[in-house]
Amino acid sequence: MKTLYPFAVILSLSFVLSSFNKAENNIDSHKKTSTVATVYHHSDADVDAISNDFFKRYSDLKKYKSDVMSLYKNRTLGTIWFDEDDINEFGTVLYEKAKKTNDLIIPYQKEIDELFSTSETKLSKTDADMLLSSLYIAYAKKSIADTKKKVSYDAMLKDFLNYSTIEEATATTSADAANVKVEYDQYYKLQDVLKKYKKIERSNKWKPIVPEETPYKELRPDAVSSTITQVRTRLYLLGDLKNDSKSNVYDRELMDAVMKYKVRNGFKPNYILAEEHIKEMNVPLSDKMETLKLNMERCRAISALIASSDEYVLVNVPSYELVYVKNGKVQMTSSVFVGAPLTKTTIFNGEIDRIVFSPYWTVPQSIVNNELKGKIAENKNYLAEKNMEMVNGQVRQKPGPDNSLGLVKFMFPNPDDIYMHDTPSKTLFDFEKRTFSHGCINVKMAKELAVAMLKDYPEWTQAKIDKAMEGKTENSFKLAKKVPIYITYFTSLVNENGEIGFFQDVYEKDTESTTEKTVTLN
After folding, report:
1. 3-state secondary structure of 474
2. Catalytic residue, candidates 30, 277, 299, 421
3. Are residues 148 and 264 located together in one domain of the fold?
4. CB 241 within 8 Å of CB 226
5. Which pLDDT tens digit goes with each residue over 152-172?
6. Could you tell me if 461 and 325 lie in one domain?
7. What is the H or E stretch that residue 436 is in?
8. pTM of the entire structure?
9. Which residue is catalytic, options 30, 277, 299, 440?
């Protein structure tokens, strides 16, 4: 898209509008900020007094006064360059672009530099905002002078009303992409987290956690360590803790925060702080943000049908989790385990058309060749002992509680012969990394899923389901309405509670995407 100025970021004033919208929703909180006098909620006389005072104290900016005040004219929505008490991303873009502009003298550079440094500034928010507006005018005038074009600031704002975030303006690959609505709402949830992480990055409060002891020793409740203090600060920044007491004692408050952190990130739910948890907490924010962006792109790629489906099953491989949604609400979730790296679970969409109770398991020929032939040769009773039989040259396991498919399986036709099923190996769900299968999806709460999916079939009472699962005779039921299933690969997801989770890149697809991106750029 062709812009009027090389200030690609003149778009930032469009972005200003989105931050205005946010500020409008929080107008009361702005009014309550005692340390900030604003120019937005006063009479014309008050506004004149405030502006006269500002430009008297910053006399070198008087030549910009008319243009600066035009930015605030008729606006009642708060500061331009701030979100609450922090400079927003638009202000950061302006500052970086201004510094890189040849021959541009940044007015009151020392004061403006302090706004973006780790040191605290003595400026009020009003002074800081008007200084940045003055910098914007200086930058814009430099750009106008270079291009010999004129600009109306109000008109410019209107020109870019279609942009709502800096991501849409700078991260898309085409003009069309910026205007395409992503149907899967997870995209916008991840986008909100990305904004939060950018804000944390700008605060300069994200510091590496340096363990007190080397080699690292696991920390448990009641431990006393400087590492605990650092972990506490980290979990406060991430939102798992409401307050940062700075205490070095692993107390009840921190225990709850650690548990919250572990659950949302797919770790085993306990209070132990192992070295792997510290390493994960120390992943740079820049890496986390790249992961968020990558998964936002995966949201673009997922079928738009997911938004219009009133019922579906979603299995996410990296988080080892299944979610069953009906009538727009999550009905249940379940842990799963998936294919090992050499027998990966295929990422695709399908439709569940049958539920099979007390299923036979026809053993894949590859397993027969690689695993069973030797055992059968050593023990002629092996098949009988394992409740197996030979039928038409194929080995199959009879229904029963020890059947490898458990008591129920869910079928959705696909060329890779992938399906979901129960399993007798329940202890495998206790592992954090659950890549054990030959490609199929093993569901911990398979019985509960079957019950939930059959609620619209009155003939399938609980008693009938229980009898069908007794493991004596295979019983296949064809669904009158097929249920969409999405097998996905999201290494970051926002849960129902609005909490972000980051998960292992178990099949190294993130690494592949990053490598492809690097190769393309080079």
Report:
1. coil
2. 421
3. no
4. no
5. 555 444 433 323 333 333 343
6. yes
7. strand 435-437
8. 0.69
9. 440
